[in-house]
Amino acid sequence: MANRTSAAQRPNGSTQGKICQFKLVLLGESAVGKSSLVLRFVKGQFHEYQESTIGAAFLTQTVCLDDTTVKFEIWDTAGQERYHSLAPMYYRGAQAAIVVYDITNQDTFGRAKTWVKELQRQASPNIVIALAGNKQDLANKRMVEYEEAQAHADENGLLFMETSAKTAMNVNDIFLAIAKKLPKNEQTTGPGGSGQGRRLVEGDSGAKTAGNCCK
Amino acid sequence: MTASLLKNPELQFGATTFFAKEHKGETCGSNGLPLTPNSIIIYGKAQKLKMLKHPNLCTYLDIIRGKHERTVIVSQYCGEPLSSYLGKERFSYDDIKKIAYKIFLALHYMHMKKIVHRSLSTENILVQENNNIKLFNYGLFYMTDNGKLVSFPIVQLSYAAPEVYLDGPNGSLSNPKVDVWSAGIILAELVLNKPLWQSLKVGQRIRKVLSLVQGNTSIFERIAREHNCYDIYLSVPSDLKQIIEVCLTIMPCDRPTVQIILKNEVFAQFKTAKESNRRKIYEPFEQFTIEELYHWWQLAGGDVLLELKKQGLIRSSPPILSLPQMVLIDGLILGQERNPATLYDSRIIQMPLEALYQRFEHISLNCYYPLIHVKSEILSNGNDSSYDAEQLPLVIREKDPEYQFHRVILLRRLLHGYPHTRDLIITESIKDIPPLLRGKIWAALLNVRGDYQEEYIKIDKETPTPTDRQIEVDIPRCHQYNELLSSSEGHRKLKRVLKAWIYKNSQYVYWQGLDSLTAPFLFLNFNDEAKAFACLSKFIPKYLHNFFLRDNSAVIHEYLAKFSQLIAFQDPVLANHLENINFIPELFAIPWFLTMFSHVFPLHKIFHLWDRLLLGDSSFPLHVGLSILTQLRDTLLASGFNECILLFSDLPEVDMEQCVNFSLETYSTTPKSITARTQQSEKCVYVTTMGIPAQDLNKEKFPRISVDDVVNLIRNDSERIIIIDIRNPTQYARSSAKGSINIPCSSITFGEVNIENVGMHSSLLKNNKDKIVVIIGTEETNLDLFPTFLIHCNIPKVCVLHGGFNSLLPVTPTILITQNQI
């Protein structure tokens, strides 16, 4: 059942092109579907009763773009407001972020806007931010209009898509769109992503050297 | 002779089965989640029925979900249906009065619990050998949410009150007075000694009942005339006749309630005041109950579904036969024959108990009465008839009927004596905890006592709060693989317990994870929310003191720092590796400790884990964490950061018994001060002596040990300790701890990580496995360098004496010596 898209697989046999590693963080109100989006993207699965995330979860996935292999190191964070104090630990040094809201719940959209603001203020200056309106499969119960979110995305220079982790709609696409937008010149990072982990916790010094592979 | 206690006619049970209504078409609710299957809703609702205990009600024992929404109800079943007596020897009027009294007692009890029978008939009233009567299958209407969750009508044709029919075929009228009417019909049948309207077809019977609405003469009289029994009608004693007549009042509003009927003079003769009053004062003790018998029966191989299959109640037909002829694109199904099995099948299958009797035949009578306090040696020697299974693995012991027999008999007796027997319960729990009694034993271990129910009732669990949204989104994803917790009843209860806890603990707030933490208690005490709440309220202060503060960062950081130190203390190789790849506990261990592992393991594993946890103090979870790392050690050591963190994002299978045993091992060999925290709630001597500033704690890789622990080790267990005095030789010669060795800090070059640099004592340290290496310095010497160096050299069990050498000075009698004395 885990049917990954072909885009998510390594090119076999071909000469290795550039390999880029990016740290990506998912943010958003709880129960909007952050973990479900990641699970759909990484394993091609969907769990109706996806457990809540405490602290954060980590997963990786690789996508191919032309001659470049992009490896996402994905931090999936806890949505509850109380876990907010942990969030900087995860978005610090991230080259990309997906801010998720639930299209059937206006409050989650409000929360998404605050996340965007916080990222623009606190995260790496070149961070690529995508806005994902999840649960598109419940469009008949929509509370957030597509146009409204699109307008917000345009104003703030965000990528925007409505997604559905359940039907897989736009899930790979949004990750691919991010991969395309990320700068991939002077690629240097080799295998072994431990560097990412180190940067994650070393605090400010890490934040300054963020994006060592892709700047 | 010994199984005689088991072979009690009361202790028999049977099963019935039916199908819940399937959801047609729409499979998702408004929140996008799949609709809860009706059989799950029934499963949750029916749990309450297990709580009904009344001499005139068959006890509900179990609800089992089969394939395709099948629901099986297991319940006590003893005696013969009343219907089988009709038409035979006539009951005397006194007997009928007695039967009436007992039926009304049972109905009264049910109605008090807000349960309406709705299908009372002579079929489901059982007459026992001792002439007692018991109602059977009285909860069907209740558990199916007034019949809404099944596709068949819950009604007994001749017995249903007229308003039931007037309510229509899908009616869900739940006025308890419908039961009064049915009782009236039953009494009329008993008096006339024949089933009513026997020869009529279904439609005609309904019409017959409805025709009674017309006219204004006595219904009982009309019924008697219709059945050619007017002579009998005339001979019925007036008090009994009057009861039947008021029961058969057409207008529900004029019909009396059961409570009023019971006050009737005719029943005065049966009332024995003492029985009910004594029960209130103290519960009678039973050696074992039918629930326990059923549990042993299952362990001994009893299988309800198998019996139902054998008897033809569950029949499987090839799936191809149930294919519809046409399915429209919107999901509408056409041309599918209705499966006759979805209709109600009233057959009851009695479960055979012979296998259990045989299995338990050799158990001697005194095993039913285990000795608890033995003062006589002869008696205690003679009492070794207990079943020897303690060496077997836990999972086997839990499945062994005989072992569980002994455990349940013993522990239920101890629980009966709680709180006075708490120490004995703890002693027995160290061996293991019988799953059947786990909820009660946990409550005892957590020291839940007093009128916890009263306390719970007083708490506001309903007023909306801003936290509700979070709770509501968390509950539908909390242990949802479990039938109880995924039922609507489970959701409702979990929400109430959580809201109660937050209301009661205003200094704390709801952190995600509290739901997972509450789930095991609710599962074990599903019919006693108050106890689940009481257990949670005892558990959190003990193990998670201050974890649910609005700002809990101080607690969590200290906890995780202690965890890192414990890893370094027990397994420096692993600690060094994790440090090198920067795999810090903050990234993976917060859900472990915040929920005491209840967010990362399924319920059956949490049970075995907490069985032990509840016997330890608040440092035990740290050892559990270490034990999990140890089980995954090889993988961790061979992996980099990404692989490690991925491993924990999707925690692999952990052998819980092994994990628990390993935790116990490190727990018992680690001095208490190593894991002592300032943020724990237990009164601990070390806490006052060891106020380690937070910045030091985070900096130090090694744990500190308290002076008391060191003195204790020197005095009582000097084989287990290596004391390294790192002061200069002059100070050492002047005064030092007994048995200590001197490795002056200044003599070592820390540049390269090589234990040989230590000099002559290096082999002692290199070969150390189990001894605790205590570093004694002074406040002036740099206390960080040397222990950190040792840990980097992979020397296990390194710790530093808190307070340094000077803290040994006030110890009396002294353990200090001067080297000149030797």
TrEMBL record, chain A:
Residues making up the signal peptide according to the UniProt record: none
Originating organism: Pyrocoelia pectoralis
Transmembrane segments: none
EC number: 3.6.5.2
GO terms under cellular component: early endosome
Keywords: Endosome, GTP-binding, Hydrolase, Lipoprotein, Nucleotide-binding, Prenylation, Protein transport, Transport
Protein name as catalogued: small monomeric GTPase
GO MF: G protein activity; GTP binding
Subcellular location(s) per record: Early endosome
Chain intervals for the UniProt region annotation (Disordered): 185-215
GO process terms (BP): protein transport
Upper taxonomic lineage: Eukaryota, Metazoa, Ecdysozoa, Arthropoda, Hexapoda
Reactions this protein catalyses: GTP + H2O = GDP + phosphate + H(+)
NCBIfam families: small_GTP
Family listed: Belongs to the small GTPase superfamily. Rab family.
TrEMBL record, chain B:
TM spans (from-to): none
InterPro entries attached to this UniProt entry: Kinase-like_dom_sf (IPR011009), Prot_kinase_dom (IPR000719), Rab-GAP-TBC_dom (IPR000195), Rab-GAP_TBC_sf (IPR035969), Rab_GAP_TBC_domain (IPR050302), Rhodanese-like_dom (IPR001763), Rhodanese-like_dom_sf (IPR036873)
UniProt superkingdom: Eukaryota
Classification via Gene3D superfamilies: putative rabgap domain of human tbc1 domain family member 14 like domains (1.10.8.270), Rhodanese-like domain (3.40.250.10), Transferase(Phosphotransferase) domain 1 (1.10.510.10), Ypt/Rab-GAP domain of gyp1p, domain 3 (1.10.472.80)
Protein kinase domain residues: 1-267
The Rab-GAP TBC domain, residue ranges: 432-617
Domain Rhodanese: start-end pairs: 717-813
MF terms (GO), sorted A to Z: ATP binding; GTPase activator activity; protein kinase activity; small GTPase binding
A UniProt-annotated Pfam family: RabGAP-TBC
Name of protein: TBC domain-containing protein kinase-like protein
Species this protein is from: Pyrocoelia pectoralis
